[in-house]
Amino acid sequence: MSMKDKIFEQISKVMEVEVNDISLDSTPDTLANWDSMRHMNLILAFEMEFSVEIPPEKIVEMLSVQLIIDTVSELVA
Amino acid sequence: MVSVRKAVAEDYSAVLPLLRRLSTEHDWAPLFRKAWSSGEETFGYLLEDQGKVVGFLGLIHSERLINGQPISFCHTSSWIVEESYRKHSLGLLAPVIKMNDRQVVDLSASKDVHNISLKLGFTSLDTAFVIIPALPVGRGILKWTHTKVINGVDAIEPLLGKEEQRILRDHHQTPCQHLLLKSREATCYIIGTRVIKRGLPFFRIHYFSNVVLFLERAGSFRTRLGMATASIALITDKRFLRGQELPLSKERALPYQRMVKGSFLQPEDIDNLYSEYAIMEMQ
After folding, report:
1. What is the pLDDT of residues B131-151, one digit of tens each?
2. Which of A46, A50, A48, A77 minimizes the C-alpha distance to A59?
3. Which residues of B lie closer than 8 Å to A, measured between beta carbons?
4. Do A35 and B94 touch (CB under 8 A)?
5. With an 8 Å Cβ cutoff, are A60 and B116 in contact?
């Protein structure tokens, strides 16, 4: 499974939405259930899945699926 | 289009309906009143949707001299976002997370905010407070005449050092009471507010200039402070007491967590001045 697929899967689980409803352009505005608490749960899920620690400054900026993928990719590399 | 911008004094009336959801009893005006110079003109951040305020995070900035070291402080307060805009809540916190040049303090983090804050680089500052009944204990009775409490800003101000005089002036227009504990050898400037809990009066201490003196002579000072403030007991955050237990005192968990971001100071050096507790009538 690619990193993108894993990220989509985590978003789907945490936000309780179908994977098909998620796109690279998805943001808190366009994806149901994406509030602050779920955002933090998402961060924790990524940290466990990819064994990385996401810096606080990044956490508050990861507000689209594309930004999430960019940030996680950068940290994993 | 939802956006975040700095809050200025003129925004108070637009923010007030949100703040009243937190409490209808508080006078929220002090959050938008500049009582001292800090180099920061903002009172926090607003979340707006087409000109309508839908979220707010209050910030109280101050410049302090702690142990001779200049420190910039930012106390957070009153984080509230309309339910339908909760997905944008972190946008209000983002500017605070990026403040790496100052000691950020949150004295009233709810359980949810506490969990989010831990992930965002905050650490726990304090989890408990101590209730000290205003009763003479131990050697306090024997040394009663060796101590006194001076009450009232006019009497206290000439006896303070330069930095403490600045603190006094900055908190002069707040609900705080100012007292000076005096022994034969030393003094301890105390700032606090009188609060009512279950119908009983307590004196909540926000600042000790010389806690060592207070602890050494607590046996008599606790009673004198109780008398001077017409309170049955003193309340203080546990960290202020530097691990010392006072007779008959009771420790209780804080209803809201104290949290801090930035490691410029030791926890016991971070007092509760220049915060919502000092500028507002908070019970």
Report:
1. 999 987 766 565 666 788 999
2. A46
3. 2, 86-91, 93-94, 97-98, 112, 115-116, 119-121
4. no
5. no
Separation between Cα atoms, residue A10 and residue A41, nearest integer Å:
10
Residues 6+ apart with CB under 8 A from B171: B35, B178, B191, B273, B278, B279
A36-50 and B111-119 helices, crossing angle to 10°: 40
CA distance B93 to B227: 42
What's the domain count of chain B? 2
Residues of chain A positioned with their CB less than 8 A from the CB of B116? 36-37, 40
Q: Give the structural domain span for B91.
A: 2-127
- Domain at A48, CATH number: 1.10.1200.10
pLDDT tens sequence across B247-256: 999 999 999 9
Residues from chain B that touch A68, judged by Cβ atoms under 8 A, are none
B contacts of A55 (beta carbons < 8 Å): 121
Can you give the pTM of this predicted structure?
Answer: 0.89
Residue B157 has which token pair? 């101000």
The C-alpha atoms of residue B178 and residue B164 are separated, in whole angstroms, by 11
- Residue with token string 């505005």: A29
- In terms of domains, do B169 and B63 share one? no
